[in-house]
Design brief:
This protein is mainly β. The protein has one domain. It contains no helices and seven strands. β6 and β7 form a beta hairpin. It is globular, with a radius of gyration of 11 Å.
């Protein structure tokens, strides 16, 4: 899990390779680009992008919402 720089959003990863973004208890988006468990998440400093690293040996960057 990783909080956005402004602490308003939370990105969470799970073992099926999905990353979900939440804001104040509301689901914002789901990223389905990995083919394995996601082990690391990081937000860009401006809070617009997320990087995710997976057991599928990829690191992917994508829009946070």
């Amino acid at each position: 899990m990783a909080w956005s720089p402004d602490s308003r959003c939370l990105a969470s990863a799970e073992h099926l390779g999905l990353v979900e973004v939440w804001s104040e208890g509301e689901h914002i988006t789901t990223y389905r680009g990995h083919n394995g468990p996601v082990f690391a998440l990081a937000w860009s400093p401006d809070g617009t992008r997320i990087a995710s690293a997976s057991r599928d040996k990829t690191v992917q960057g994508w829009s946070a919402g």
